[in-house]
Amino acid sequence: FSDMAVNKFMHTVTSSFLLASVFVIGVSAWFLLRKREVLFAKRSTIVASVFGVIAALMTIITGDTSARIVARNQPMKFAAMEALYEGQTHAPLVAIGAMRTDTTGVPNPREDFIFKIEIPNALSYMVFLTPSGFVPGITDLVYGNEDQGLMPYEEKIERGSVALQTLREMKRAGERGDQVTYQAMQEKFSDPVWMDEYYKYFGYGHYRGRALKELIPNVKINFYAFHIMVILGLHFLILSSLALWLSLKNRWGRHKWLLWVALLTIPLPWISSQAGWVLAEMGRQPWVVYELMPTLTAVTRLNPGTVQLTFWIFLVTFTALFIAEIGIMVSQIKKGPGGK
């Protein structure tokens, strides 16, 4: 099994449980604000908050594990998540920050943020469980870092080009019936040393002659998606913990502002989940299969009109379903548990 796949599955499931918990807490808060079904709302809050605390903790744990796996297997994605351009030991974690608009290349890291609040050593500790660990930045990954054993992208592109050309020659030899050349090329793909030195970088061969920045995911989108997800996740944990503690003290419902916070939090788990999916899909760019198949070779060549038609059909259909679902839920909530 893939450790990434198992962890992603658990992260998705536990975050879904958390979404349900926050929804129930929010709806119960609405009943308390309206002074309706008070006993039902308080009991629902206790059940949902217990479930919410457990789900929030599990979501955070699986998310932390996922970040560590990403740092090991997809270092460029991890660097983009933190907008880390220069690798370092004792790397700080950016808790909150606002980025400048020009993040398409590899600019000086002092120009990346308008402002930021950092937690010292936290990023190194997140990855290596020790503050002295070296976390590579975008510059290290693109241009290489000999001290850390990081190969520059240009060398990976050259090695990938060799693997790509070998595969093309093998294909042409097979088409013209040249068995000698075909067998010679095929033997290379059975050689573990050649596979490790050349085929391992096969996907980079498609970027020969192209700008290196095409191999860098959108830093701004990944940074904001990651931090929105994390900040909201902590918010859900705090809200669930407060709801549980106050419920056990029989004080839940006495603070009107907190009930409003719970009510307004209802849509936030969906935003957090979508931010997570944006990070998952944008962070892996430009790869479909990491370092082996880039997106530019995997896309299907379709007529733009066909794609646009399909897009609008899905947009209209799911918008209608969304409106219907919201209408049904609001109607049922207004009726209350008795259905009246």
User: What is the overall number of helices?
Assistant: 13
Strand content: 5-15%
General form: elongated
Order of helices and strands: HHHEEEHEHHHHHHHEEHH
| Low-confidence segments | none
Mean pLDDT: 89
Distance between the termini: 50 Å
Largest sheet: 2 strands, antiparallel
What does this structure look like?
The strands form 3 sheets. Strands 1-4 form a two-stranded antiparallel sheet. The protein has helices at 3-33, 38-73, 75-81, 122-128, 138-143, 153-176, 179-188, 192-197, 219-248, 256-264, 268-283, 295-298, 304-335, and strands at residues 88-89, 93-99, 113-119, 134-135, 287-289, 293-294. It is mainly alpha-helical and 340 residues long. The protein is built from 13 helices and 6 strands. It folds into 2 domains: 1-299, no CATH class; 306-340.
Can you tag this structure with a few keywords?
single chain; 340 residues; mainly alpha; 2 domains; two-stranded antiparallel sheet; 13 helices; 6 strands; elongated
